[in-house]
Known about the structure:
About 35% of the residues lie in helices and about 15% in strands. The protein is of the alpha/beta class. It has a five-stranded mixed sheet, with helices on one face. A hairpin with a 2-residue loop joins strand 2 and strand 3 (about 80).
Amino acid sequence: xxxxxxxxxxxxxxxxxxxxxxxxxxxxxxxxxxxxxxxxxxxxxxxxxxxxxxxxxxxxxxxxxxxxxxxxxxxxxxxxxxxxxxxxxxxxxxxxxxxxxxxxxxxxxxxxxxxxxxxxxxxxxxxxxxxxxxxxx
Length: 137
């Protein structure tokens, strides 16, 4: 008496085509919904009005005070050689006479950055925020 028949059964096969079709349908649904909900018409936003840019700062046309720091350690004010102590006195006088003018420091390109910043700090001790570093192109 045989209760079980022994058959050579193959493992079940999985058909991927219907599963991929369903997944592509779900993906297409989410893409359409995302595009519909993400349109610009659905967002009500008031953007700020464009503001004109500030005009670039220009050198004052009357008596600019330009201090040139030379590579050899010398200084010139408006192309006139000057020593450091006289420069500080003249800078104080210029800033006292011209309340709306700025003193510009134009260093030589070969000077070390640290030396330029140290002297700029000395100038700011005299002129405060009315001292500016200038560069030439």
